[in-house]
Amino acid sequence: MRTVDTVALARRVRGPVLQPGDDGFTTEIAGFNAAIVHRPDVVVGATDAGDVAAAVGWAAEQGLAVAVQSTGHGQLAATDGGILITTRRLDEVRVDPVARRARVGAGVRWRSVIETAAKHGLAPLNGSSSGVGVVGYTLGGGVPVMARTFGFAADHVRAVELVTADGMLRRADAESEPDLFWALRGAGRIGFGVVTAIEFDLVPVRSLYGGGIFYPASATADVLHAFRTWAPTLSEQTTTSIALLRLPDLPQLPEPLRGQFVVHLRIAHLGGVEEGERMLAPMRAAAPVLIDSVAEMPYVGVDAIHSEPTDPMPEHHAGVVLRHLPAEAVDALIAAAGPHVEVPLAMVELRLLGGALARQAAVPNAVSGRGGAFSLLGLGPLLPGLEQVVPAVVGSVLDALEPFAAPGLALANFRGSLEATDGPYGAWPSADAGRLSEIKNFYDPAGVFGSGKRSLVG
């Protein structure tokens, strides 16, 4: 860590400029994944795009690398030195109900967009937790709650505003900066600039048939095998996933789930209640049920489908895309992470892909992972003493399903660190990886934004 003179920087920006030891520094750099502990030389709390441009320009003058954090959900690596720009204060949300479009700042979380859009009978293509930041999720691809009906969130982006390494504020869309626009939608984490705002389409959804069904550990094999044959028969109106959960013994959890291993089926269906009941009947009959919350719900209640944690935690995750899910794959998953295996994992999840996810966007983009049948994600808490164990166990689960993986396909948001053995472009086929590298070198020739190793949207 180096000492830098921040007097000139403080004169250029309106937001706070903090260094290690200053009051508020630790709070400013904290993010959702507590395992990522930043150690920048200086942090700037940007209040608008002008602050971002000024901070990037100052960093270039000082020869400092630049990293960015909003909520910290999507952060891929800790910052060591350089400048960290936090964008949580860029929290503007504007909805155009006639155009069915939203414009949001880089610090906005999905909850704000969901509630604002709902006033107009509209919904965004958010993921499983509304506490996640819009920009990082979307520019990493974004697998929405309604993914099979509408595709990736990035497919619906209309424009991205960002500050590039030269300190310029740019607007990338289908007509302006088209190569950059292609790259940002799906590969934004590689680091082409600091995103300040994003515009995207909304969909006319007020409610859906959704929720979750929890099954006991004893039903794991029956439920997973039922899921693998049932899920591929579903129409594009249904998006579903299933997870093996090792739940903590916490009083806020319902008694049947507290401290238990459970199987959690998640459903989001847009075909109405009656159709949804018929669709779900085979899974309700697959095994005894602990809790069944699937019913018609307003879209503002969408967090109840996955019921994800809302408090910051140290965690490690990684995933792969599967080309199919035969019985042998389910057996391998149960052997690696089932209830009879002592592993420090909080969740192992299978998501059904396909449907609209398999189709390229109207304006093509760099989203990876199209064409896979399922995604597999492993996640574990990095508690003291488990810092090396959890990544190894997650890796072993993914290795167990490797024979069923889809070569050349990956979901950037689920992949884990950009510093994986296959490098920052490893989630993309060679042609796309080459194009991304060229665009990166054009807009950031000096590697100001961490040479693709740091998330510029997390």
How far apart are the first and last residues' alpha carbons, in Å?
A: 22 Å
Q: Give the CATH level 1 class of the largest domain.
A: Alpha Beta
**Elements, N to C (H/E):** HEHEHEEEEHHHEEHEEHEEHEEEHEEHHH
The portion of residues assigned to helices is: 25-40%
**Range of strand content:** 15-25%
Count of distinct strands: 17
**Biggest beta-sheet profile:** 8 strands, antiparallel
Please give a quick description of this structure.
With 458 residues, the chain is an alpha+beta fold. The protein has helices at residues 7-12, 25-29, 49-62, 110-118, 134-139, 147-150, 178-187, 220-230, 273-284, 327-337, 389-400, 412-415, 430-443; strands spanning 17-18, 42-45, 66-69, 83-86, 93-96, 101-105, 157-163, 169-172, 194-201, 207-216, 238-246, 261-269, 291-292, 295-298, 315-322, 347-352, 374-381. The strands form 3 sheets. Strands 10, 11, 12, 13, 14, 15, 16 and 17 form an 8-stranded antiparallel sheet that branches. It has a 5-stranded antiparallel sheet with strand order 5-6-9-7-8.
Characteristics of this structure?
458 residues; five-stranded antiparallel beta sheet; disordered C terminus; alpha+beta; 13 helices; single chain; Uridine Diphospho-n-acetylenolpyruvylglucosamine Reductase, domain 3; Uridine Diphospho-n-acetylenolpyruvylglucosamine Reductase, domain 2; 21% strand; 3 domains; 26% helix; eight-stranded antiparallel beta sheet; Vanillyl-alcohol Oxidase, Chain A, domain 3
